[in-house]
Please model this.
Amino acid sequence: MTGKRIWEALRPWPVYLLAASVPISLAAINVSKLLILLVAAGVLIGGLLGGRRQPLLAQSRSVRMVLVMLAALAFSLVYTTAPWHEALGDVAKYGKLLLIPAVLLLIRSPREARMALGLYLGVQAFVVLTSCLLYLHVPVFWVPSTPRNSIATVYSSYLDQTIMTAAFAAVCWHLRASFPGRQGRWLALGLAAISAVNILFMMPGRSGQMALLGVISLALLWAVPRRWLAAAFLAPVLLVGLTMAVSPQFKVRLTEVVSEVNAYQSQQDIATSSGMRLNFWRRSLEAIAQRPFTGFGVGSWNQQYLRLEGPNPIPGTAKVRNPHQEFLLWGVHLGLGGILLLLAFFAAAVRDSQRFAPTAQHAMQSVLAVMAIACLFNSAVFDALIGEFFCVLTGLLLAYGQQTLTASDPVPRTAGSAEPVPA
Model:
């Protein structure tokens, strides 16, 4: 085998490693992330020197928005009010956005796209099934005995796990016709159903529960005939009511939010999870109002929070680096333009997905919906693990959608003739 053939055989493997790592291990993610960025840089430089174009990168609006976002953060280093080590640290954290173009650069065929996505689906299914076993008190030797923040948490926190599981359920549902084998469709439906049960009945993560209801609402919206479209917009309200009726845990968690918000409004109670978030958001809005056009520069949120909070911040929050809300974090860093940049990224990704086959388009847009909902209640791009997860899955679905456009039959097929995605 020639050196070129060896290289072509090895080229997609950093993506495979990253896809298999993202549901289970932050340490493995960091190693594979470094590897994929190095290999992608080598491929890009080699292509530029050899005069080879990268059409998938050139036509992707998402990639262009990633570069614009990172350039804006880098430019804000000129005027940031944060210490340099914190500002550079935040720029490095947002460097994970480069995983999106890196995946597109290294995945060059429909087979490679299916393999990478299939590895992710397989490992994520393993995590969901393990979570169910833990909830049922079945001993599993592959989960560390270290303390976990809920009985069904596997390798991360229940917050991260429920959000990732909601995205996984959406991908299984929309790509069900592409799972391999005669029973592949039923396998996908089963995994989606188990994931929904896991989120609503076994895990306490409210963000993941709301994300799941969001993707179910979208699925209903896409499924109903046009004449019922207006009624379909009532689906979120009906789903919340139905879920409260069948899931005591969801009802308790939602009731807690209502009472905590009321306590914050009436008594300025900031000792609760919701009260603390609301206080973070209030300080963020105050900072944005003071510098609406430029923000205070990358890495500045903690400094501005402490300045506005005064000498006695909420106990335990003096070192918090983000407001648990991604849009407001970008607003403090870059002003209103930063919020618009983040919204523009979502819009660009939706535009990219509109060229895909409907199944891939709906899977991509559902994951973007999960990401947007997570960003409303958490700094879902800034945070470790969940941020890498969204960048990796976005890259995988973009690669899958774009590469299947080059296949001989890019239109959706029936379950019996579907192009297989390894599960």
